Amino acid sequence: MDFNEYQTRSRKTALYPPIGHLVVYPTLGLANEAGEVAGKVKKIFRDKQGVIGPEERQALKGELGDVLWYLAQVCTELELSLDEVAEANIEKLYSRLERGKIGGDGDNR
Predict the structure, then answer these.
(1) How many domains does the chain have?
(2) Cα(67)–Cα(34) distance, integer angstroms
(3) Rounded-to-integer distance, Cα 47 and Cα 67, Å
(4) How confident is residue 105, by pLDDT bands cut at 50, 70 and 90?
(5) HSE toward the beta carbon, residue 10, CA cutoff 13 A
(6) Fewer CB near the last or first residue (10 Å), C or N of the chain?
């Protein structure tokens, strides 16, 4: 499955409450799910000495799927495709790589 197919197919399940602008709910969900991924990784290091076994990998896969779902909905609400977002990100990263600016901070490096 590619990003465009995922985005189209996932949209059929996008049943969320209209709270203000349509981008609000999926953006909040994206932040929440990303936090759940971080929480699971934190607990792996706290409780399992950083060992990511099959059970942990499956749990993270589920949470990352939720992140992807919300990202797809945010993109759709903004009339962007996941493909174009991914392509723009790779172009930005390769530009930084070519200019020796991968490290450091700031959006405009």
Answers:
(1) 1
(2) 6
(3) 24
(4) confident
(5) 24
(6) N
